[in-house]
Amino acid sequence: MSTLAIDKAGPTRKVKYGSMKRDRTWALRWSYFFLTLFAVFSLVPPIYMLITSLKSSAEISAATNPWWVFHPTLSNYIELLSSNQFLRFFWNSAWVAIIVVTITMLISIPAAFALSRMKFWGSATLATGVFLTYLIPDSLLFLPLFKMFAKFGDWTGIELINHWYVLLFVYPTLTVPFCTWIMIGYFASIPKELDEAALIDGASWFQTLTRIFIPVALPGLIAATIFAFTVSWAQFLYPLVFTTSTDQLVLPVGITTTLIKGDVFNWGQIMTGALLGAAPPLVIYAFLMDYYIAGLTAGATKG
Amino acid sequence: MAEVSLRKVVKRYDDVEAVRGIDLDIADHEFVVLVGPSGCGKSTTLRMIAGLEDITDGDISIGGDVVNDVPPKDRDIAMVFQNYALYPHMTVAENMSFGLRLKHYPKAEIKSRVAEAARMLDITDLIDRKPKQLSGGQRQRVAMGRAIVRNPKVFLFDEPLSNLDAKLRVQMRIEIKKVHQKVHTTTVYVTHDQVEAMTLADRVVVMNKGKIEQIGTPNELYHNPATRFVAGFIGSPAMNFVPCRLEEAGGKLNVRLTDRLSFAMPPSRASRYQNVPKGEKLLLGIRPEHLTEANGHAAPGVETFESVLDVTEPMGMETLVYFTLEGTQVCGRVNPSAGARDGAPLRLAVDLNNMHLLNEGTGAVL
After folding, report:
1. B4-225 maps to which CATH number?
2. Coil, strand, or helix at residue B29?
């Protein structure tokens, strides 16, 4: 009887111990499965682009295996890179992106600082308002914006439409609200005591911003910069609407409008142009990736 | 260095009055500690002195000048925060010299001041590290160093030791006292820890519900508290309060606790309580150290009584004993050799020479 009692009291070995490790193994298997799936899904298009860009027009239209290059050629690359037109698009894009990023940062950083730190009447409402403007889709905005610039041209005689620099006025409507919103989040995660300490140490608001906030929130700043750059580099609708002359086009619009003639698609060069166009953001991501990830996850935990 | 004075200072947030008209004069070189429970307005008061909060009403002056509308940077003060508030991207030296660099001090002077402060705080080896490479205690030293190098008129400390563990807190407490002995800067220090207040302060300001309850030296507050709040807040374990009445029998005063228990008022206290209305509801305030085991020797003003202990807490050098008197839990401190055990009876002696009588309704100490 006593044995029975002991048996009852003892642990029933139904639960398999060491299952932590087994759980982990399965979790890893599933993550690899989905990661692979995702990698394939997102890598197939660029790989297909690369394959196509290495083919001649004849091979593209020939009924061969589209996933293999039988006669690789760099002619598409050589043709594009030696074409002044393509280089023009590239420079237009680069200028627009660099200037827009600069304008965006010059507006967003002080705006975010003011909205997150200087408590003034309506600052909270304004902060929400800033974000709401970002939610308005560009497909809704391009017509009124076009009208505005046309009217502006009528009144002042300064013609903005059909010049690449009109984009310097248009893109910030997309980038400024979002970057301001991101920066408000980063600045808000900086402890209040830090700016109070700076104030007591004798810093002005501007010095607090430049010497404390910007260095401390650098990951966030880089995240915002990358965002602004990507938006202005890849934007398609606005440049399509606002610029028409070939020498004023930016890369995405330039490629589609000049390499598609009527119903003739120069696929080889389109793919080459798209790949070359995707290179600068890729390079920037690669260099700033560590900062970018730190930026994305900052504020997730207190620290 | 300078004196600080507050005149009828009020701070109102919308409809909440955080600080309700306080008057306070802090002398030059003085170390004053504002102490009180959370929400008593002590931090708000400190932040108003710093200029981090606007004052709703009243005047604050530093060194004789009213600073109500002077921004923090022009008040010539330095502040140490609870969470250190070190600039994370700067080294220790850069953190400490930030204020001086903003004011464009000559490089050589900045260097010598930082070196001097670092030596005083024993952080010379850490001077090139970033804050995240430092421990809590080291960070707090750097925060103090940042205040010292500025050589300000007033130091403000906002619960600087609250984030440290108990052992380090004691160590840093001594450190702060040493620094004050060296630099003599007028200091206003906020804490909720009454031990910190007692050990550091020249004078302690006890605050409660936005008002000052009492200002005095640590000993004054301990031995002559003005209100029940101060009596209960200062001292650990806290003072016991037992309901009682005064009786007059044969020209002598008695403190009656229960039907069966009453103590004769010692001569040392009799004159003080002569005019207290008899029969009124009072509280007998007695500190745990004045409730000890009876040792058989009669002494003037010491009365003995039987108790049954509920709980005992051996502390090593003493044993805290808890028992119930008139439905109130009472704490005493007895010698570890007195044989106090949970649930056991013990004859205790109460030293009425150190008793206090409080009005139960108003909480005023009589």
Report:
1. 3.40.50.300
2. coil
Q: Is A202 on the interface with B (CB under 8 A)?
A: yes
**Mutual angle of helices B92-102 and A192-201, in 10-degree steps:** 50
Chain B residues with CB-CB distance to A194 below 8 A: 85, 87
Considering only CA atoms, give the Rg of chain A: 27
Provide long-range contacts, Cβ within 8 A and 24+ apart, for A188-195: A188/A116, A189/A298, A189/A299, A190/A216, A190/A217, A191/B83, A191/B85, A193/B81, A193/B82, A193/B83, A193/B85, A194/B85, A194/B87, A195/A117
> How far apart, in whole angstroms, are the C-alpha atoms of residue B144 and residue B121?
8
Tokens of A222: 């880089």
B70 and chain A: CB distance < 8 Å anywhere?
A: no
CATH entry, B240-359, from 3.30.70.141, 3.30.70.890, 2.40.50.140, 3.10.20.600: 2.40.50.140
CB pairs under 8 A between A and B: 57
Query: What sign does the CA torsion over A157, A163, A165, A170 have?
Result: positive
B221 CB contacts (<8 Å, ≥6 apart)?
B198, B204, B206, B214, B230, B234
Nearest Cα of chain A lies from the Cα of B137 at a distance, in angstroms, of 17
Task: Retrieve residue A228's tokens.
Answer: 């602004």
Domain boundaries, chain B: 4-225, 240-359
**From CA A205, how far away is CA B4, in angstroms rounded?**
26
* CA distances to B55, B60, B208, B230 from B36, in Å: 20, 21, 6, 9
Name every chain A residue with its beta carbon within 8 A of the beta carbon of B78: 200
Q: What is the DSSP string of A207-225?
A: HHIIIIIHHHTHHHHHHHH
C-alpha span between B266 and B252 (Å, rounded): 9
Cβ contact (<8 Å) for A193 and B87?
A: no
Task: Locate B265 and state its tokens.
Answer: 């008022």
Q: Please, are residues A55 and A73 in contact by the beta-carbon 8 Å criterion?
A: yes
CA A191/CA B167 separation, integer angstroms: 27
* Contact residues on chain A for B77, CB-CB shorter than 8 A: 200
Per-residue pLDDT of chain A (303 residues; tens, 9 = 90+): 444 444 444 555 555 555 678 888 889 999 999 999 999 999 999 999 999 999 888 888 887 888 888 888 888 899 888 888 889 999 999 999 999 999 999 999 999 999 988 878 888 888 888 888 888 888 888 899 999 999 999 999 888 888 888 999 999 988 999 899 889 988 988 888 898 999 999 999 899 999 999 988 888 888 899 889 998 998 999 999 999 888 888 988 988 888 888 788 888 888 999 998 888 888 888 887 776 666 555 444 433
* H helices present in chain A, as ranges: 2-9, 19-53, 57-61, 75-81, 84-117, 123-135, 138-156, 167-170, 172-188, 192-201, 205-208, 214-216, 218-234, 237-242, 251-259, 267-297
Q: What type of residue sits at position A197? A: A
